[in-house]
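Entry:
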Amino acid sequence: MTVEGALVTSGRHKLKGGERIEVAIPPAASALPAAENIPLLIVHEDDDLIVIDKPAGLVVHPGAGNHRGTLVNALIAHCGGSLSGIGGVKRPGIVHRLDKDTSGLLVAAKNDLAHRGLSEQFAAHGRDGRLERAYLAVVWGSPERNRGTVSASLNRSSANRQKMAVSHSAKAREAVTRYEVLERFGAPSVASLIRCELETGRTHQIRVHMVHLGHPLVGDKTYGAGFTASTHKLPEAAKTALKSLNRQALHAAVLGFEHPRTGTALRFESPPPLELASFIRALGRVTVK
């Protein structure tokens, strides 16, 4: 077998007769994300930064399996070349992330000054009082306490590198989530609406911490698959709403930070999107079977 005039072997076998086989080699993909006209819900924008209300299903930046159709592609189209370059060519302007299937507020930097200033605040995890991040989540069951704190370090799961897990490894990173139960649905509770505030911002932090607490997020196919049977306890309206939601019930509802240039305190709120709000309303009519 020859390819482009070179002999290619497969194990100990060669094709007889000098047969030539043409192999189609795809063109190299550009390292630079392309501008794409993807609609954005812009909450705030100035010369230094832009705050987006990200819909569920939108990946933040290009990566394996997601080279196009990301928030970065949309930002490049909207902001042009003004995005900060500190994050690298594939993550221009990106200071923090939300999971693909998590909706809500996210800020991006339009220049390096803003990127450095925002990054410092995210690195401090709000402990200096400048940064505020709060999420709304629906979890299965009901935490025993109305308020609490989950402090459990996280690392890549040894069983599945695509997942995070609570870990006592020396390589595990500190992770702290404060939560408050806002509403309990059913008696006893089938599910609960909670508010989570982050003291750290680790990958999948809320999702893993709620599993650690014994109350995984409703709709979380990665971390809450073992609770799928709980769906049968829901009334038909809630089951239908959950199918329409088709993702983990998690929404970045509050984002506050200090403007990196002016020092002004900025705070933004986002109500749950329609599909999540509909599910929460349907849960309000839960009667345990």
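The radius of gyration is 23 Å.
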